[in-house]
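Inverse folding, one chain.
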């Protein structure tokens, strides 16, 4: 949907999003999980991630505090790192291929209810 007030593109994504906002849920994230994602994981607050102890690739979307997309990383493989992203407040981890299939782009906003 286009918001006529500021012409920003707001989009919803076709995934259930689980929120990880406590110390333990943020710390664990997707580590040690054996099966690939079928939903999204929103880690708040968060501005960088690691793929240590991961067994599958994911797509990653970095968001500002108002859910503006400021960086996307497609097909992030196990044992890789994404250093801190300036301005990022949250990270949305999605199934691999989700960025491309949903046409998620930097500068858009994600509607997370």
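Residues assigned per position:
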């Amino acid at each position: 949907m286009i918001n006529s007030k500021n012409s920003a593109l707001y989009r919803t994504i076709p995934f259930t999003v689980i929120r990880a906002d406590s110390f333990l849920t943020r710390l664990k994230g997707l580590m040690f999980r054996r099966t690939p994602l079928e939903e999204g994981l929103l880690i708040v607050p968060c501005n960088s991630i690691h793929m240590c102890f991961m067994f599958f690739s994911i797509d990653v979307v970095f968001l500002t505090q108002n859910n503006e997309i400021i960086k996307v990383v497609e097909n992030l493989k196990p044992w890789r790192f994404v250093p801190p992203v300036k301005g990022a407040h949250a990270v949305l981890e999605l199934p691999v291929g989700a960025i491309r299939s949903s046409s998620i782009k930097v500068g858009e906003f994600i509607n997370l209810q």
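Confidence is low (pLDDT under 50) at residues 1-5. The longest helix spans residues 23-28.
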